[in-house]
TrEMBL record:
Keywords linked to the UniProt accession: Membrane, Transmembrane, Transmembrane helix
Organism: Cyprinus carpio (Common carp)
Protein name in UniProt: Solute carrier family 26 member 3
Top-level division of the source organism's lineage: Eukaryota
SUPFAM superfamilies named in the record: SpoIIaa-like
Segments crossing the lipid bilayer: 75-100, 106-122, 129-148, 168-189, 201-225, 245-265, 277-298, 334-354, 366-383, 403-423, 430-448, 460-488
Pfam families reported in the protein's UniProt record: STAS, Sulfate_transp
Lineage, highest ranks first: Eukaryota, Metazoa, Chordata, Craniata, Vertebrata
UniProt keyword annotation of Membrane present: yes
Length: 726
């Protein structure tokens, strides 16, 4: 029973071992369904109306929220949000097309087709689907590799008779199709959990490196330089920029600087006064309209040799099939694109789902993006995900559902079929400047480094390795290296955990690391060893080494020394070298060889020894045996979540402690680990279930009853023991 008293509590209960606890408290045996039973259940279950409805809601989440749509409260916000987001989506579609090494107009397709499909299949109500700069850059790397600026295209069937622009569009749509196929397959296999392996630290390092790639790639547009893009770890190296910097177009440079300054200032105003502004000032739209007007009025293209957007797409083109040879050439790059696209979108969606209290399904998101990208690729769009800035606008301007997403797609549609020609005089340097300005958030992630260095050096290493690898090896290889580094740190943390010796905090039933506190009590002859991680094949040897260090001796060496000492004593008794009065001399059996190493690790056999050997006293004939200064060893398994077969075999070596008269106790062991120990025949005549205790305190009470220690803690425990028997 528990008696609360102010900020104290007193619990009076019997002392339990796992055996006594099982006797008094019957455990419910839960039967787990096997794979065979699950399959039989699926085959025999009836497909009733409710199951059909649930399946439909799962595949088409729109069914779940559209029927509860509140027209009066939500429609106006969705309309305002859709218009605002649509304008930004148009500009980002144009700008991110440059990253993909495609004509600007094709970014509008990416802002339209995937958004329409996501409206029906997606589970996030606030995600703005469309072009994402990092994915665009990864697509551009494939495009420039297969269809380079300065050289012949790759020898691919299907390129015959196509212009360079058409070849690049075919490559981009094909790699997008296979990227969507990867996402669809992962969704069908229910592996949405894979995004959990991409930690925030890894994503931060990766996106920061990608931002540097994007920044460098946009310098040729901002400076108005004319040189071909280079496929490689850095899409356009700084060497190319500086070698051609004397040809900088002053008009492009001035325009870019003015645009970046204005946009940064207004964005700062939006951030500082967002609580007072009804909607953020659409500065990107404003400067784009002004730049278009000024460029057209002063004929920037001819007077200043400024490169403009040029001819825009006019309506929609007929669907195309992906090129199989391009798919073969780009499949390796498409897989990391699928992972990155989903990881970024899911992370952003999760933020807003928590904020607005609704759930999202990672597997359904994979299906939604897979189908969206495959469908969009058929209509010449390139890889789609989301952009944090665009999604933030959709949410902050009042968007409640994906109705806002559809309306933003309608805004893109209007530009595609009606007013796209108005954007033809827009300088490409303006688009490059807008891309660079929107990198501010990703580039500012450098500020995380001092915090990581001070608080978690392992995460710091993961960040730096991911960043450097992504910067110099390319984004696809960089992501793989970063993931490998992250998993390596996890393995190191579990393979080399921080084991510790515990002690009792005086006057409590709490046990902590003995090095961290002054007011502690350690009963004489007792060691409490804590294992803070799972025990498996990779760390079982480390665990045993740490245990030997903690107790101060190797039980196997002690056991062998003791057995060897007994052999020597027997030999001395047989040879009359050791005289013991009133004791019959042992038999003269000489089969035992004192120099043989066989059997030294077996239980100590005192047969033929007519005296009681005290291993802690001086032995005859200068026989030396390492001292053992403990009588009880307690292993705290409270943090051990699983054991494998290698660990079970390794734990069998606990017999060595038992054979040298050191009692071993295992406490706080998970019930499912106990089940596994029984299943694997861990227990025998030496290791018994009686060594297991439900709590560390129970084991200590038992030890102090068995080996009284006349210290302060023992006095407290004696009172508790007496109370527990009342």
């Amino acid at each position: 029973k528990m008696q609360p008293s102010g900020r104290h509590y007193v619990v009076v209960r019997p002392l339990f071992s796992e055996d006594s606890f099982a006797e008094q408290h019957e455990r419910i045996n839960r039967t787990r369904k096997t794979l065979r039973k699950l399959c039989l259940y699926c085959l025999h279950c009836s497909c009733d109306t409710n199951r059909a409805k649930n399946a439909a809601r799962s595949l088409l989440p729109i069914i779940g929220w559209i029927k509860n749509y509140n027209i009066k409260e939500w429609l106006l916000g969705d309309i305002v949000s859709g218009i605002s987001t649509g304008l930004v989506a148009v500009l980002q579609g144009l700008a991110f097309s440059l990253l993909a090494s495609l004509p600007p107009g094709y970014g509008l397709y990416t802002a339209f087709f995937p958004a329409i499909i996501y409206f029906f299949l997606g589970t996030s109500r606030h995600l703005s689907v469309g072009a994402f700069p990092i994915l665009s850059l990864m697509v551009g790397a494939v495009v420039t590799r297969l269809v380079p600026d300065g050289g012949p295209p790759a020898n691919i069937t299907g390129f015959e008779g196509l212009s360079m622009e058409q070849q690049r569009v075919l490559v981009a749509s094909s790699v997008t199709f296979v990227m969507g196929a990867f996402q669809l397959i992962m969704g069908l296999l229910q592996v949405g959990f894979i995004v959990m392996y991409l930690s925030e630290t890894l994503v931060s390092g990766f996106t920061t490196a990608a931002a540097v790639h994007i920044l460098v790639s946009q310098l040729r547009f901002v400076l108005g330089l004319d040189f071909p893009g280079v496929n490689g770890p850095l899409a356009i190296t700084l060497e190319n920029v500086f070698s051609d910097i004397t040809n900088t177009n002053v008009a492009d440079l001035v325009t870019s600087i003015v645009i970046m300054a204005l946009v940064l200032i207004v964005k700062e105003i939006n951030d500082r006064f967002k609580s007072k502004l009804p909607v953020p000032i659409p500065i990107e739209v404003i400067v784009t309209v002004i730049a278009c007007g000024v460029s057209y009025a002063f004929n920037f293209e001819k007077r200043f040799n400024v490169v403009v957007v040029g001819e825009m797409v006019d309506g929609y083109e007929s669907p195309i099939a992906p090129n199989l040879e391009v798919i073969k050439e780009s499949a390796v790059e498409a897989f990391p694109m699928a992972i990155v696209g989903f990881a970024v979108a899911f992370s952003v969606a999760k933020v807003y789902s928590v904020k607005h209290d609704y759930t999202i399904d990672g597997n359904q998101e994979l299906l939604a993006f897979g189908v969206s990208n495959m469908f969009g690729a058929s209509f010449r769009s390139f890889a789609a995900s989301t952009a944090l800035s665009r999604t933030a606008i959709q949410e902050s301007t009042g968007g409640k559902t994906q109705i806002a997403g559809v309306l933003s797609a309608m805004m893109v549609l209007i530009v595609i079929v009606a007013v796209g020609f108005l954007l033809e005089p827009l300088p490409r340097s303006v688009l490059g400047a807008l891309v660079i300005v929107n990198l501010k958030g990703m580039l500012m992630q450098f500020r995380e480094l001092p915090f990581l260095w001070k608080n978690d050096r392992t995460d710091f290493v993961t960040w730096v390795v991911t960043f450097v690898a992504s910067l110099f090896l390319g984004l696809d290889l960089g992501l793989a290296v970063g993931l490998g580094a992250e998993l390596f740190t996890v393995v190191c943390r579990t393979q080399f955990p921080r084991c510790s010796l515990l002690a009792n905090i005086t006057g409590t039933d709490i046990y902590r690391d003995r090095k961290d506190y002054n007011s502690i009590y350690e009963p004489e002859g007792v060691k409490i060893f804590k294992i803070p991680s799972p025990i498996f094949f990779a760390n079982i040897d480390f665990f045993r080494d740490k245990l030997v260090q903690a107790v101060g001796f190797s039980p196997l060496k002690v056991l062998k020394k003791r057995n060897k000492a007994l052999r020597k004593i027997r030999k001395m008794l047989r040879n009359g070298e050791l005289e013991i009065s009133d004791v019959r001399r042992p038999s003269t059996d000489t089969s035992e060889d004192n120099n043989s190493m066989e059997g030294l690790d077996q239980p100590i056999d005192f047969s033929g020894i007519p005296i009681q050997v005290n291993w802690n006293t001086e032995l005859p004939a200068n026989i030396s045996v390492p001292p053992v200064n403990i009588h009880s060893l307690v292993l705290d398994f409270s943090a051990v979540s699983f054991l494998d077969i290698s660990a079970l075999k390794g734990l069998k070596t606990l017999k060595e402690f038992l054979r040298i008269e050191v009692d071993v106790y295992i406490v706080s062991c998970d019930v499912y680990i106990m089940e596994k120990l029984h299943q694997c025949s861990f227990f025998d005549d030496e290791i018994k279930t009686s060594i297991f205790y439900p709590t560390l305190h129970d084991a200590m009470l038992h030890i102090l009853e068995k080996h009284p220690d006349h210290g302060e803690l023992e006095k407290v425990f004696t009172v508790i023991c007496k109370l527990s028997r009342l």
